[in-house]
Design a protein that fits this description.
The protein is mostly helical and 375 residues long. It folds into three domains: 183 residues, no CATH class; 120 residues, no CATH class; 55 residues, no CATH class. Helix content is 50%, strand content 10%. It has a three-stranded antiparallel sheet with strand order 1-5-2. A three-stranded antiparallel sheet has the order 10-11-12, with no helix packed on it. It starts with a helix and ends with a helix.
Length: 375
């Protein structure tokens, strides 16, 4: 927790958050990694108001350091135990090491949830037996719960017992009639969130805070959730003002009830439209190329028919060996001059500029002498 707070992964987590975390850690069952909430008792122990306890526990959940195991309800737990009196069902949290911490520390994790185990590289060290069995010594501060590497969304850590954010209304229902949802692996296209550097996450949150101040219809959204859905804009190099300008055109005259979900849906719709436009452009380019190729072939066929060039009378292509052989003997300058007079471009291509220039000058000089002699 000291590292998570120092890294600035939550803008409001501070020393009070660390105090609450230490109180939960001192009461945690190290066999299961679970701790009872005991909100009022915690407030009395640490000398903090109950409302502040609630607030800082929510910061711990948003950091991914706590996950709900059991929601506290008004159901009488003493009646279920066959006892008299009344006692509400206690809230139980699971202590979690966020995956971002393991990546920053270079830890290699095998497995997910509470079955995960750290992999220790023993190469170059004195061989020692390595095992990570379930902890049998409750209260040992040297042991920590395994990392949770499956993340449903920033601020929503998914564990075997449920989700980190669940409404009280749903929590008060009798959940014994239906099984909890199991963890599902995220696809590689959705895995960029798990690979984001903590400093980049902090920068995303700073940008999202400025965007939320500039765009009024986003001000009801949680900051970390807003930062998460704004990542496509941030990854394009846009600053807060550019992102605000992009969002300004999304909602005109109304306010979405769930801004983050609306932004995600709008970006997905925009990406789908761009994919369709790109496919149409590629298809049009292919059709244009095929039409141009067909027209070129038709033009060549017309020229071949016009000049009588067919498959049996095609002129072989000129090679570099033909050019070198033609340029070896400069005594053929009269032939070169005549060729130049008939087809200048072809003569230069065959004989080269130097030989053609020499041939033209020689021809002009000889013709000039003949005219003078005639006079």
């Amino acid at each position: 927790m000291e590292w998570l707070i120092a890294a600035g992964l939550h803008p409001r987590a501070n020393a009070t958050t660390l105090t609450v975390a230490r109180d939960l850690g001192a009461r945690m069952d190290y066999d299961t990694g679970h701790a009872r909430y005991c909100m009022e008792e915690t407030a009395a122990r640490v000398g903090i108001d109950v409302s502040n306890i609630k607030r800082h526990v929510s910061y711990l959940r948003e950091l991914g350091a706590l996950a709900w195991v059991v929601h506290g309800t008004r159901a009488n737990i003493r009646r279920k135990l066959g006892l008299g009196g009344y006692a509400g069902t206690a809230t139980v949290y699971a202590a979690v090491i966020p995956a971002v911490y393991d990546r920053a520390m270079g830890h290699r994790i095998d497995g997910t949830g509470y079955n995960a185990r750290a992999i220790i590289d023993q190469r170059g060290r004195t061989p020692e037996p390595v095992d990570n069995p379930p902890v049998d010594n409750p209260g040992s501060e040297s042991c920590a719960p395994p990392s949770l590497t499956v993340v449903k969304e920033v601020g929503q850590v998914q564990v075997e017992s449920g989700f980190n954010y669940t409404s009280r209304k749903r929590a008060s229902r009798d959940t014994a009639s239906r099984p909890h949802q199991t963890d599902q692996k995220r696809s590689s296209s959705q895995g960029d969130a798990s690979r984001r550097h903590p400093l980049q996450v902090a920068r995303d949150i700073q940008i999202a805070r400025r965007v939320r101040a500039l765009v009024n219809w986003t001000q009801t959204e949680r900051l970390r959730r807003l930062a998460y859905v704004l990542r496509p804009f941030i990854d394009r190099g846009l600053d807060s003002h550019d992102i605000a300008a992009e969002l300004a055109g999304m909602c005109l005259g109304w306010r979405p009830a769930q801004p983050a979900n609306y932004i995600r849906a709008a970006l997905a719709d925009q990406a789908a439209r761009e994919a369709v436009l790109a496919a149409d452009a590629e298809r049009l380019a292919g059709q244009t190329w095929r039409a141009a190729s067909a027209q070129q072939a038709a033009d060549l066929a017309s020229l071949a028919a016009l000049f009588g060039i067919g498959p049996d009378t095609d002129v072989p292509a000129r090679t570099d060996d033909d050019r070198r052989a033609a340029q070896m003997d400069w005594n053929i300058w009269p032939e070169v001059a005549a060729h130049y007079a008939d087809d200048p471009d072809d003569a230069i291509d065959l004989y080269g500029e130097d030989l053609v220039t020499f041939a033209v000058r020689q021809d002009a000089r000889i013709n000039g002498h003949r005219e003078m002699a005639h006079v």
